[in-house]
Structure to design on (598 residues):
């Protein structure tokens, strides 16, 4: 660490005000605070609640994403070799997937951080870690075959219009990672859906449809319970493995970075909707999606990933405690509703979460409002 | 002499009537009116240009006519009088388009008729033509129509270029790009994208001109 400190100290005079490379001040600042705890302290009275700052919280989320990422890389290799009819060693498959996923990660971080730094510089803000998590989430929620320039365009659009126009990290209304996916989904639908995009370099004759697409088409998901849990099937890079996501969920809940109320109510909401829809299975034989067991809804597709990593984003979620229950529940509820009843969208998690993101401030408003009314009533009775 | 008392036709004050709405008092970006047609007709450049010309004709001559009649209009029924004037002009425009630019007229379909409800036109009648002399009113109509037109054309330029890879129907982005894997952006074709484009113009305009920023 001494070595890094020395490098940073030697660069410092050049990037401070009046230095030659003043323009790169925020970049230096970002690197400095990344490695060392800043020695700046509050000058007025402060309210210390915890030693965890945004940087640590963000890193915990990135660490929680690692199991899903590693599994996703292996799965990219596994589905590829399976589609061309070969058996591959675990490491061969992983290496293949690693080389496919790494460019997406690099592009996502490169474009996103570039824009963040440019905006921070022009506004005189510090560069903050807002994009660390988004940049890691994006590769996990897109198909592995997404062309890199599309990723770059979508990231740029989402970061500028989803985040920077509202004032940067902490001000955004919708989740930037999901917004990136939504942009990709609507701008380049052919690269984001269908049965050709989910498996890297698959043989032409192989249908690489996701289980959800198969269900929409009227076939069964074709997966055993074991496969659903492990997640070795076609899908977005990080969304398939419930076990890997579960490890991430454990890390997030154990450290308290993600809110357990939102996470729980999201799954409860999804399950409730699935049960309701499942009870109609007999009346509408045309929609084979209705026949899927309620608990299988939770296990396949992006539901688990969305519930653990997406809806729990503290910036876009509700802030009131009651609001968190409502918010999570609505998210899960709508996700399954879209999934089953709208044939145009085999998966509804992305749209549902973006939708409740927009509703979060309204939910908070009414929760606070109800509380005020309740207390006013009490005051009148005693008077 | 009487001639000296008359204001010159293009006095600085009158010129402002044209230049202000193009920039700082733009009907779309500042007053945020006429958004509906900005969403609907800006997928391609050609309909946007035709729409702009139509609005220009209706707005300039409508302002002129209303201004000429302004002292004779009973204020209680002024809105309906204004509507009659707009409707008459829109029907004229519509018939001209059908006669001379049938294809575009079909593309614009109902939106030419909907110029009647374009809030900018009613707004200018109420706010300006009812209280000003004919010549300034005519200029004001021209200015606001230009302000409306350039936004419409800018948005349509962006949307047609990225959404269809073409301008005025001619392919601009070469085939070699498509062979290399370039794909037209489907999001740009969708109506919400016009709002993003208008928002971006508003953003640029306000960051260049701090006076426009409200608290």
């Amino acid at each position: 660490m001494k070595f890094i400190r020395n490098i940073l100290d030697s660069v410092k005079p050049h990037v401070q005000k009046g230095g030659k490379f003043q323009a790169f001040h925020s970049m230096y600042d970002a690197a400095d605070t990344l490695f060392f705890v800043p020695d700046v302290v509050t000058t007025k009275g402060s309210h210390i609640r915890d030693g965890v700052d945004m940087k640590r919280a963000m890193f915990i989320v990135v660490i929680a994403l690692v199991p899903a990422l590693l599994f996703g890389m292996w799965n990219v290799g596994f589905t590829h070799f399976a589609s061309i009819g070969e058996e591959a060693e675990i490491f061969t498959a992983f290496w293949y997937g690693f080389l496919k996923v790494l460019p997406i990660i690099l592009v996502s971080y490169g474009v996103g951080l570039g824009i963040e730094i440019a905006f921070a510089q022009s506004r005189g803000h510090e560069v903050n870690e807002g994009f660390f998590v988004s940049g890691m989430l994006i590769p996990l929620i897109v198909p592995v075959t997404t062309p890199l320039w599309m990723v770059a365009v979508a990231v740029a659009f989402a970061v500028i219009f989803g985040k920077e126009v509202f004032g940067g990290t902490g001000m955004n209304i919708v989740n930037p990672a999901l917004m990136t996916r939504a942009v990709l989904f609507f701008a380049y639908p052919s690269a984001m859906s269908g049965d050709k995009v989910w498996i890297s370099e698959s043989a032409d004759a192989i249908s690489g449809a996701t289980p959800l697409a198969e269900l929409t088409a009227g076939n069964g998901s074709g997966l055993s319970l074991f496969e659903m849990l492990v997640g070795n099937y076609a899908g977005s890079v990080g969304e398939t493995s419930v076990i890997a996501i579960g490890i991430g969920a454990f890390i997030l809940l154990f450290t308290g970075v993600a809110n357990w109320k939102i996470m729980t109510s999201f799954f409860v909401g999804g399950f409730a909707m699935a049960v309701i829809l499942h009870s109609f299975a007999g009346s509408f034989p045309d929609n084979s999606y209705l026949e899927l067991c309620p608990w299988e809804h939770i296990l396949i597709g992006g539901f688990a990933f969305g519930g653990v990593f997406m809806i729990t984003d503290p910036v876009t979620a509700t802030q009131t405690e009651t609001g968190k229950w409502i918010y999570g529940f609505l998210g899960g509820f709508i996700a399954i509703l879209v999934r089953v009843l709208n044939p145009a969208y085999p998966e509804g998690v992305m749209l549902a979460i973006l939708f409740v993101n927009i509703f979060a401030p309204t939910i908070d408003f009414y929760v606070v409002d109800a509380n005020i009314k309740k207390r006013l009533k009490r005051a009148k009775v005693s008077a | 002499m009487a001639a000296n008392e008359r204001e010159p036709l293009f006095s600085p004050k009158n010129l402002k009537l044209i230049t202000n709405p193009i920039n700082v008092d733009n009907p779309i970006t500042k007053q945020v009116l006429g958004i509906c047609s900005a969403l609907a007709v800006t997928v391609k450049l050609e309909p946007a240009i035709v729409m702009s010309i139509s609005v220009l004709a209706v707005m300039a001559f409508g302002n002129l006519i209303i201004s000429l009649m302004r002292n004779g209009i009973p204020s209680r029924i002024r809105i309906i009088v204004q509507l009659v004037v707009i409707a008459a002009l829109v029907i004229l425009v519509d018939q001209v388009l059908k006669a001379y630019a049938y294809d575009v007229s079909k593309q614009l379909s109902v939106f030419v008729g909907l110029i009647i409800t374009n809030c900018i036109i009613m707004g200018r009648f109420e706010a300006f033509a009812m209280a000003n002399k004919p010549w300034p009113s005519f200029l004001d109509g021209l200015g606001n129509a230009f302000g409306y037109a350039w936004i419409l054309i800018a948005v349509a330029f962006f949307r047609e270029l990225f959404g269809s890879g073409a301008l005025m129907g001619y392919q601009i982005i070469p085939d070699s790009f498509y062979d290399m894997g370039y794909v037209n952006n489907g999001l740009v074709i969708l109506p919400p994208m016009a709002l993003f484009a208008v928002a971006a113009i508003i953003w640029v305009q306000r960051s260049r001109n701090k006076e426009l920023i409200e608290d």
